[in-house]
Amino acid sequence: MAIEPNPAPEPVVEALHQGLGHGTAKRSWFAKLFAARGPGRFLSMPHRVAYLRLDEIRSDADLRSVARFESWRFLLHEAVPAAQTDEASDLALVGAATVRADSNSYSGLSTGPLVAATEEAIHRAEDHPRVKGGSFEAILLIAPAVYVIGLWLRDLEHRDDFVMPIPPVSAPFRAYEEMSSDAFLTALNGLADKVRGFQ
What does the alpha-carbon distance between residue 86 and residue 90 come to, in Å, rounded to a whole number? Predict the structure, then answer.
């Protein structure tokens, strides 16, 4: 038991491959890299992306009720040639590609620090005792209004969800430190109240 695979719907997968294989000039370098889907190139860890709107962030809210699922995201890796590493099976993280769930349209590629931080959060979650002993879905959770992102581990057997904030973070959050979903929303509400105070 651990983080359970969550296969993306076929239309999402088709949109992803079409986007990767038919890149515009803006992303031509990436399209060229993955268009052939050659040996050593991998799409991995499909996961949903959920958003929290400012007006729905409340300390008494239920995360499962207020989170809005808007897209699918895939991590992209490429095998590093044996001559470049001590381990022939080593994989280099290239980026993450996103497909909108409502229109099954390819949204683009991300290559910034959030991609590496997401992978780090997933690795840490996989080693977490609760995850090892249970069954969880990994979801990228984004609260744009307060600039907070976390890896939401949604309990598939019970309702014992928890969130690992993804850096960069500020108080009261700590990077990759486990928080119950209730504690996460309470801390998030404190930041949201400050933002709402300026509106």
Answer: 8
Name 120's Cβ contacts closer than 8 Å, sequence gap at least 6.
176
Domains in the chain: boundaries: 10-196
Residue 199 clears pLDDT 90, i.e. is over it: no
The rounded distance, in Å, linking the Cα atoms of 81 and 138 is 30
Q: Which residues contact 182 (CB under 8 A, 6 or more apart)?
A: 59, 63
Query: How many whole angstroms separate alpha carbon 79 and alpha carbon 37?
Result: 12
What does the block give as tokens for 70? 């808007």
Q: Under a CB-based contact definition with an 8 Å cutoff, are residues 140 and 48 in contact?
A: yes
Q: What angle do CA 46, 49, 54 make, to 5 degrees?
A: 170
Q: CB-based burial of residue 91 (10 Å sphere; 0-12 exposed, 13-18 middle, 19+ buried)?
A: middle
Choose among 97, 92, 114, 132: nearest CA to 175. 114
In angstroms, the CA 31 to CA 36 distance is 9
- Tens of pLDDT, residue by residue over 117-134, are 999 999 999 999 999 999
- DSSP states along 46-64: EEEEEE--GGG--TT--HH
Tell me the two tokens of residue 66.
Answer: 């207020």
